[in-house]
Amino acid sequence: MRQMTKKSRKTASKAKIRQALIDLVPVTGFQQLTVSQLCQKAGINRGTFYLNYLDKDDLLRQTESDFFAGVQKILGKNEAASSKELFSKAAILELIVYIKQNEALVTVFFKSDLAARTEYRLQEIMTEVFSSRHANLTNPAIKQPYASRLVFGGLATIFTLWVQRGMRESPEEISRILDQYRRLSPEEIIK
């Protein structure tokens, strides 16, 4: 019984610390954030923080890892309709909904000094998931790594911009924008 109590306290402490991260990063930025600020905001002592995380970078790594595991799961489980399709429309819509459901956390990632890092990680995950199902990433029409950066970087940029603009568009609308990006040539997009 005592073990359960200890485990639930640890879970509650982690939740408080992550909420403090969500509350403070938009104000201070991640680079300027201190463990002391996190502890004060979470209402915990430094010892409790260090029972859960090595430092603030470890907190960020674990938080990102949890979030991006969800992204990878969504993109990995949905098979594209054809071998030429990057990800199914259902996968993209589910990913958009997942991002919307995690809006407070995603805002920390995309609307702070973590934005470039987060966008790049999203691009990496898309590349990893797609390449695990399609061999053509080793010999695309455009030389690697340019091909992956063009395709997956563009998708990640659209997600980033959507979050940075306050997720104004509905999940369905941003899904349509992503679908158009995937189907249209650059000339067709800007004409």
From TrEMBL:
Keywords: DNA-binding. Residues 34-53 bind DNA. Residues 11-71 form the HTH tetR-type domain. It comes from the Bacteria. InterPro entries: Homeodomain-like_sf (IPR009057), HTH-type_Tx_Regulator (IPR050624), HTH_TetR (IPR001647), TetR_C_Firmicutes (IPR039532). Pfam families: TetR_C_8, TetR_N. PANTHER family: ACREF/ENVCD OPERON REPRESSOR-RELATED, ACREF_ENVCD OPERON REPRESSOR-RELATED. This is TetR family transcriptional regulator. It comes from Lactobacillus nasalidis.
